[in-house]
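My current task is to audit a protein record that another person submitted. I need someone to confirm that the token line plausibly describes how this chain folds. Take the sequence as given and treat only the tokens as open to question. This is what I was given:
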Amino acid sequence: MHVLEDGDAIEVGPGRRLVCVDSPGHAKHHLAIHDEGDSGSGLLFTGDAVGVRLPDGGVLRPATPPPDFDLDLALGSLQRFRDRRPSALCFAHYGLVPDPDAVLEEAEGTLRRWAEVAEAAWRQGDDVAAALEQAFAADVAGVPEEHREKLATLNGVHSNAAGLRRWLEQTKAGHGHPHP
């Protein structure tokens, strides 16, 4: 059995192939699939590497779960997606997202803001999840309760906080902060 790797292509028809795109960061081992070729749709199936967005809520949240989240790798994966110039993105949850350039830009900005808030709280010895909740509560303020519950189940702040905290502990250790 062959395990798919970056650049591997699966021919699915004349002029159409699915190409594997290594996209670590969200997880240590993560592949996106790009439907490319002369007859391809141009869709890029991203899994959760770009984040999670509920169609009813409209809020894009990063997906930074433990144990393998890595900010630099995740940002690199977003750039790799941009470089492929997809026609649209297909998230693991709730499907097709048009305007890939705008969504990838939004995803990068959102990911950077979440990481900044998490790092500031972590350096102060504060609760990372509480800091994220407070900083981004306004993002979901206008979202109906049932959709907020769905977002919390699929992509809760506590899971993201745990991934960010673990990443900080692994990458920032010994750089003048209070945590070992």
Notes: The two ends are 42 Å apart (CA to CA). Helices lie at 71-84, 100-124, 128-140, 145-155, 157-171. The first helix runs from residue 71 to 84.
